[in-house]
Amino acid sequence: MGNVISMPLSGYLCQNGFAGGWPSVFYVTGLSSAAWLVLWIIFASDRPSTHWRISENEKDYITKSLKGQIGDSSEKVRTTGICRTRQSRHGEKNGRPM
Fold first, then answer.
1. Is there a domain that residue 95 lies in?
2. Which residue positions in the chain have pLDDT lower than 70?
3. Collapsing DSSP states into helix, strand and coil, what is residue 96?
4. pLDDT for residue 73
5. Structural domain tally of the chain?
6. Closest CA to 28 of 40, 16, 41, 39
7. Range of 45's domain?
8. Is 15 in contact with 8 (CB distance < 8 Å)?
9. Which of 23, 37, 63, 71 is a plausible cystine mate for 19, CB 3.0–4.6 Å?
10. 87, β-bridge pairs
11. What is the DSSP track for 37-87?
12. Element (H, E) at 92
């Protein structure tokens, strides 16, 4: 949806905008992004249990319906296996020539 709005708006601002045309695209998109960030910080939450705008009944309902789907924040994700590749000393990677 953002591209549908921003592309035509950018073209319009380049032709008719303030600050010499194309700089107005950067000002408008930057200000709208800053406004979006402020709204996101105010209204978004990582978990239902920490959201300040929903009632206890809603929190319980959401938590119970997502039981087992929401990971524990203390769980560690192991990435060492993903980052390792076996290489031989003869220019082969995983048993295949490179």
1. no
2. 1, 70-77, 79, 81-98
3. strand
4. 55
5. 1
6. 16
7. 1-67
8. no
9. 23
10. 93
11. HHHHHHH--SSGGG-SSS-HHHHHHHHHHTTTTSPPTTPPPP-HHHH---B
12. strand 92-93
